[in-house]
Amino acid sequence: MKYIIIGLGNFGSSLAEKLTEQGNEVIGIDTDMSKVDAFKEKISHTICMDATDEFTVTGLPLKDTDIVVIAIGENQGANVMATALFKSLKVKRLISKATNHIHKRVLQAIGVDEIVLPEEESAERWAKKLCLKGIVNSFELSNEYSIVQVNMPEKYNGKSILDMQIKEKYNLLVLTTISNRQVNTAIGKTRNETKVKGLADPHDILYKDDVLVIYGANKDIQRFLK
User: Fold this and answer.
1) Which secondary structure element, helix H or strand E, spans residue 76, and what is its range?
2) Could you tell me which residue ranges the RCK N-terminal domain spans (predicted)?
3) The pLDDT of residue 125 is above 70
4) Burial of residue 5 (number of CB atoms within 10 Å: 0-12, 13-18, 19+)
5) Mean per-residue pLDDT for 131-150?
6) Which residues are within 8 A (CB) of 32 and not within 5 positions of it... i.e. 6 or more apart?
7) Using CA atoms, how far apart are residues 199 and 85, in angstroms rounded to an integer?
8) First and final CA of the chain: distance in angstroms?
9) Nearest of 218, 147, 153, 143 to residue 176 by alpha carbon
10) CATH assignment of 121-225, given 3.10.50.40, 1.10.760.10, 3.30.70.1450, 3.10.105.10?
11) Rounded Cα distance, 104 and 106, in Å
């Protein structure tokens, strides 16, 4: 896929790097030449330009771009102006970063397809991780439902997913499991190996170092972890 990322701050540059690493074509744009130079080896293409200037922006390959992300964070005015400009140019999919809820409402008024508040979303994941024992990571699907990675409770060691009766007892689904094993290398040393096992089968056997990837309502996930 082809992406344009406007703003190479912490969020924008990290996103652009990860998308590039996954084989996508990414154009990273910023007004700061030092940032453009810093990421030119890590992002498919980097350009120093003002994304609020209509004449300059219309020279970008917008028709061939699948997603445009406005990741400008420090300058809310520039973020709103760039968002409005790309919205008026009718790009296929537009995502904009908001820094607070007032900013989010302004972007909603413009008619942005999707709005991301990275700091808040990260805080929510960490709050869940810190408050609920056993959570490794989480992804909020809505206010009510999540996909979470949890450490496998010891009492299920050596048992199958079917034996857990997690669907019957907690109304949760195990989507997959992630195994963490120590393997011997060719030079006689050991290293940790992480492996995602694919779609979970009810008869898969669980081990104490496994991580379960679970989907369900937040209240049911909390019941399971407690």
Assistant:
1) helix 76-88
2) 1-116
3) no
4) buried
5) 74
6) 8, 48
7) 42
8) 41
9) 147
10) 3.30.70.1450
11) 5
- The CATH class of the 2-116 domain is alpha beta
Instruction: Decide: helix, strand or coil at residue 90.
Output: coil
The pair of structure tokens assigned to 27 is 């154009």
pLDDT at res. 123:
63
Rounded to 10 degrees, the C-alpha dihedral 125/73/11/119 comes to: -10
Q: Backbone phi, then psi, for 78, in 5-degree steps? A: -65, -35
The token pair at 113 is: 């397809």
CA distances from 161 to 98, 142, 155, 212 (A): 40, 26, 12, 10
Q: Does residue 222 sit in helix, strand or coil?
A: helix
Which structure tokens are listed for 192?
A: 């940790």
In whole angstroms, how far apart are CA 25 and each of 19, 46, 113, 180?
Answer: 8, 11, 21, 32
Lowest mean pLDDT among 46-50, 83-87, 100-104: 100-104
Helix 101-110 crosses helix 76-88 at what angle (to 10 degrees)? 20
> In the predicted model, what is the mean pLDDT of residues 46-70?
94
Q: Is the pLDDT of residue 80 over 70?
A: yes
> Among all chains, which residue has been given the structure tokens 């020279």?
59
Distance (Å) of CA 7 to CA 40, 106, 119, 163: 14, 19, 16, 49
